[in-house]
Amino acid sequence: MDPDKAPGYDPIAEEFETYEDYLDSQINGTDMYYLENIELARQLVELGIRGNGEVIKREEFEQRKAAAEAVREARLNRKPKKLASQGKDLTGCPLLQALRDREEAVRNGKLCTIIFIRDRNARGQEVSGYIDYGHRLAADGGGGMEAIFARKKRLMPRPTDLSFYNWETHLATANPTPNFQAGPCWCKGLLMLSLLAVAQRVMAEDVHGVMFKSKRDRKVIDVDPRSPPGDNSSRSELATDEYTQVVLYDHVTRRRA
């Protein structure tokens, strides 16, 4: 079967990029000769005074475009995707092995994973941060994580991740991601982010209330190392020589009905 004629195919939605293009398709040279105004000609077509047969309204056109896009996305999502970790030798890399084991579940939306990493960057500065694994998998078409699984690059926190803290420059950032939003405490400023990093580092600060919320099921993931991580969530600290500290927070997602 021609994929363009698959169930859900809408010739109008597929052929015309905009409603104006659709109207223009029903305007001929004679119309423009007498009207001499494209906007007036479009109005007459939309009103049904000119044109070929019944003309759909703008609202219906937009609805059909949205429906066609949804069908296209669903068709693309059904195609099997190559895993970034597939075929990679991860011997001696506990973090990458753990991420490989989670990749498929994260990609299909059954699992959301937050990666806490503390280590030194290429400049020798100590940095720490929380990484939305699903966000990283989707970024750059997945090419970034594929290079990491191939061990061409190291997985490190970035200022654009869920959260980031540089211990030398004191740069602190917090960002929403497609899977998580920061808890209410972030609204009070980024000071709590540094306190949270301290808690992960020496467990010396009271950081109760620092948390992230899943956008899928609205459940809260508490990343305070002394508190339960929350419903359907688990905390796993990895023993590894690759980084100073690595903690994985896994959240089994359950969408609201």
Describe the structure.
With 257 residues, this protein is of the alpha+beta class. It folds into two domains: 3-78, no CATH class; 94-252, no CATH class. The chain contains nine helices and nine strands. The protein has helices at residues 11-15, 19-24, 29-35, 38-46, 58-78, 94-107, 133-138, 143-149, 191-202, and strands at 111-120, 126-132, 163-166, 172-174, 180-182, 211-214, 220-222, 233-238, 245-252. 26% of the residues are buried. The model is unreliable at 184-195 and 201-208 (pLDDT under 50).
Features:
nucleus; 3-stranded antiparallel β-sheet; elongated; alpha+beta; Cilia- and flagella-associated protein 299; 9 helices; DUF4464; single chain; cytoplasm
How would you sum up this structure in a few lines?
It contains nine helices and nine strands. It has two domains: 3-78, no CATH class; 94-252, no CATH class. With 257 residues, the chain is an alpha+beta fold.
